[in-house]
Amino acid sequence: MEKIETIQKELKNILSEKRYQHSIGVMKKAEELAKQYGIDANIAVLTGLAHDIAKEIPNEEKIAYCKEHKIEIDEVEMHNVGLLHAKIGADIVKKYGFTKEMQNAILYHTTGHLDMDLLAKIIFVSDKIEENREYTGIEELRKLATQDIDKCTLTILDETIKKNIDKGVLVHPDGIFARNQLLPLSLQ
Known about the structure:
It contains eleven helices and no strands.
């Protein structure tokens, strides 16, 4: 519990109130889904809380951080620097002793990734459906998340890819790879 309080204090100092409340919402949803799917709720709580720890770092500082910490920036991230918050966040949480599994869940929470484990799927989904989010179709996603985490992850990936195509922006290949891996599972 001490680690949760420490991270909450740090987030209160570095995030806007809206982003902080989003992080609390992801933490709550991750705990709920972790209990439902039988994984350690404490790990899900910590990971959900910290998932956006680097979200509000200015873009120039994100690039500088990546250079300083030798974090590779791919072509899509160069066009959408905001995506780097996941990589930077995964690096920052090492100071809290987060496991590789927890770091990967933070790393994958924006784009998805090939071979996401259950924690990564829970954080990915929780980020999109937490209680503070409101958009058309969210209630169906919230229901699906409690029924089939793979189908919910796939549905969110599909919607994100479509939205990016409609906006005329680059689609990160990690999301496409994750989608293609999950698609055959949803057809069974």
